[in-house]
Amino acid sequence: MDYKILPVGDSALTIIFGNEIDPETSRIVRTARKYLTKKKIKGVNEYVQTYATLMVHYRPAMIGYDELEARIRTELAQMDLGSGRMKKKTIVIPVCYGGEFGPDLENVCEHAGLTGEEVIRRHSSVDYLIYMLGFMPGFVYLGGMDRSISTPRLKNPRERLEKGSVGIAGDQTGIYPLVSPGGWQIIGRTPLELYDQNREKPILYEAGEFIRFVPITEQEFHAIRKQVEDGTYEYQWIREG
Question: Are residues 16 and 111 in the same domain?
Answer without folding.
Answer: no
